[in-house]
Amino acid sequence: MSSNANTIDLYAQLPKNVKSKSGAPTDVPMDPATGKFTPAFIERVIDTEKSDVNANVAYSDRVKGRMLLLTNPFKDKTSKLDKIGDAGIGKKSGRKKITAKEKRQLKIYDIPKEARRYELFLPLHRLWTKYISSLFGDRDIASQLADAKQQQQALGRLIKADLHGAKLSVERSKCPNFVGISGIVAQETKNAFKLITPDDRLVVVPKTRCVFALELSSDSQCLIYGDQFMYRASERAAKKFKPKPTVDL
After folding, report:
1. Is the separation of the CB atoms in 59 and 44 below 8 Å?
2. Residue 249 to residue 243: CA distance in whole angstroms
3. The pTM of the whole model exceeds 0.85
4. Contact call for residues 215 and 221 (beta carbons, < 8 A)
């Protein structure tokens, strides 16, 4: 192969006119003590016995005339905080979760008025029916609850089951206004059930002092005492329950 006379050496030093256009300031004042310390430090760091690198060459090629960032850049703490959503909540650095108060301000768990329709939650109820059937092993739920041998195990599954999508109706309550309310569970909190009624209303029913009828299938239902369900759905699924006496209303 013939060598090209105009071959460019990729490892050659940059011309002075290119270095002058690099944008790096060249008139930075230097402390005389720093000017003496840096070359001496390079000589101490480089082990001439184990390395072929010349300390003077390394200093002139890689250190001299360059700006080296020795510390992290300063962050201005007075700048405006990032905002989350329309509520304008300040986002603090280093915090990954928002508080319950901020969640209420952002209305994360609020169901929009246009979504409070009973027919929209019917697919969720059908999905819950399949879920509860598979939870009991695709066997008759009423017979398992009536059988003394299987009752304890069946109740343990039922009390830990997720009720989002189930049909609930208030059988008894200290407040007579809640008696007779029925609907599909749209949300469950620690202290209340949020039901979507057949007339497209969102009703919040407290768990305390209420007895609910839970529809397990078309021909079976069971009563649950709200005072014993005073947990969040996620907490109830992982909690170990002990038998407690129930005081009827």
Report:
1. no
2. 18
3. no
4. yes
